Amino acid sequence: MSAVIALHEFNYLSPHTSLTHFLGDSAHDNYAFYQWLDTKDILPIIKLNQKKKGRRELGKVEITYAPDGTPICLGEPMVYNGYSNNRCRHKWRCAICYSKKRRLENPNHYCSDSPYGRVVYTKCHDDLRLYPKVARQSNSWTRLYSQRPAVERINKTLMIDDALETTRLRSQSRIYWHIFASFVLIHLKAQVAFTAR
Fold first, then answer.
1. pTM
2. Residue 168's domain spans which residues?
3. Of 104, 127, 145, which one is at a domain's C-terminal end?
4. Which segments constitute the Transposase IS4-like domain (predicted)?
5. Is 98 in contact with 117 (CB distance < 8 Å)?
6. Other C-beta atoms within 10 Å of 129: how many?
7. Taking a C-beta distance cutoff of 8 angstroms, is the pair 134, 140 a contact?
8. Residue 94 burial (CB count, 10 A)
9. Whole-number Å distance between alpha carbons of 112 and 100
10. Count of domains observed in the chain
11. Does 139 share its domain with 153?
12. Residues 124 and 41 in one domain
């Protein structure tokens, strides 16, 4: 995968810079890549590939889940109820029992013996792809993933505007210089736009 090679080369060229998050589209959504990122202590912010659906067995309890990894309780997606750092697991609650209003609207809803409702815990190491440490339903994940279009704009500038895609350069050092010059140009454009405000 090109992302693994790019991250490895980045780490080799800049060993003192540590990466904390990886923003990726659904093309990076595979178990091997999640496991590799976990070994490097990089948090994945990756959109789920909608083609991968179905059932998953976590431990001894088989659950059904939505395409975005949310557990299902009696046909309803469960509500994300936070991440426990000391126990390293996510907590999910029945959506109807979680809301007082919905509980009153559905008095015959019984998914658990407790009025608190059904609770499902998912551990990150059970399924790194569906339950990363930054949950997809959380505000943190949404805020981080909203930066993804900026990455696409830079890729488009490099590949199309600065003609890296159609370059006739052959040596790796010349390609690196081409990329370096493109990044200098991107920064200069940003400076001009910032000072023009």
1. 0.55
2. 148-195
3. 145
4. 18-183
5. yes
6. 19
7. yes
8. 24
9. 16
10. 2
11. no
12. yes
- Rounded to 10 deg, the angle between the 2-13 and 31-39 helix axes is 10
Rounded to 5°, angle at Cα 185 from 184 and 188: 90
Alpha-carbon distance of 178 to 163, in angstroms, equals 9
Q: Are residues 170 and 96 in the same domain?
A: no
Contact 97, 117 (CB under 8 A): yes
Structure-token pair, residue 160: 């199309």
The sign one gets for the Cα dihedral 19, 51, 128, 73 is: positive
pLDDT tens series, the chain, 197 aa: 678 888 888 888 888 888 888 988 888 888 888 888 888 888 998 888 876 554 444 444 456 777 777 888 878 888 888 877 666 678 888 888 888 888 788 878 778 777 788 888 877 666 777 778 788 878 888 888 888 888 888 888 888 888 887 888 778 888 888 888 888 988 898 899 888 87
Q: Parallel, antiparallel, or unpaired: how do β-strands 72-73 and 76-77 relate?
A: antiparallel
